[in-house]
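can u do me a favor
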């Protein structure tokens, strides 16, 4: 496998991992469908992801997760649960698609890059939802859920189609999101003028 192929494989893993930070099950479903249809090679130990039972189970889990994020209160609870789960999911989905690397290198990349980007993405979305809840009383949360759902689907599909471009876009979006959150946090902490 060439260095370029390895870079594409790692970028694909990072792209799918970032999408798990927005929705845990949707990127797995996209990867499962791609593998089941023969369009995505999986690591040897993750062949189960490309099976019909996996497609069915992930479809059900995805629908339940999507619907749950539209229920006020449940969405914030899910964020509390999804933050640590995103790290694990990002690691697993990265390891599943990073092929032809020695196990130590693959798992190091999956944990550091995949798990790290999934955890960072989920943290940004959890903070965004918390701020939406505080500023809108939860009325803005369905809009946040819709953006997260669309983002997860878009990033998952783009990661399959153009992994390196997706990686660059993820870095840019996370940088912009962190700047925005920093700005919002600063404006909320400034003392009011009398």
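np, heres the sequence
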């Amino acid at each position: 496998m060439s260095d370029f192929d390895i870079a594409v494989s790692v970028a694909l893993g990072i792209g799918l991992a970032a999408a798990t930070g927005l929705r845990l099950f949707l990127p797995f479903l996209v990867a499962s469908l791609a593998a089941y249809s023969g369009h995505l090679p999986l690591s040897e130990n993750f062949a189960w992801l490309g099976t019909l039972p996996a497609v069915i189970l992930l479809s059900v889990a995805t629908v339940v997760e999507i619907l749950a994020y539209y229920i006020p209160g449940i969405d914030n609870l899910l964020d509390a649960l999804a933050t640590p789960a995103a790290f694990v999911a990002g690691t697993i989905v990265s390891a599943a698609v990073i092929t032809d690397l020695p196990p130590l290198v693959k798992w190091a990349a999956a944990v550091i890059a995949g798990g790290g980007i999934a955890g960072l993405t989920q943290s940004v979305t959890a903070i965004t939802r918390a701020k939406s809840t505080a500023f809108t009383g939860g009325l803005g949360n369905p809009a946040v859920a819709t953006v997260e759902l669309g983002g997860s689907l878009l990033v998952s599909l783009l990661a399959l189609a153009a992994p390196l471009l997706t990686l660059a876009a993820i870095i840019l979006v996370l940088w912009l999101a962190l700047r925005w959150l920093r700005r919002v946090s600063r404006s909320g902490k400034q003392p009011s003028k009398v």
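The chain is about 80% helix and 0% strand. hope that helps!!
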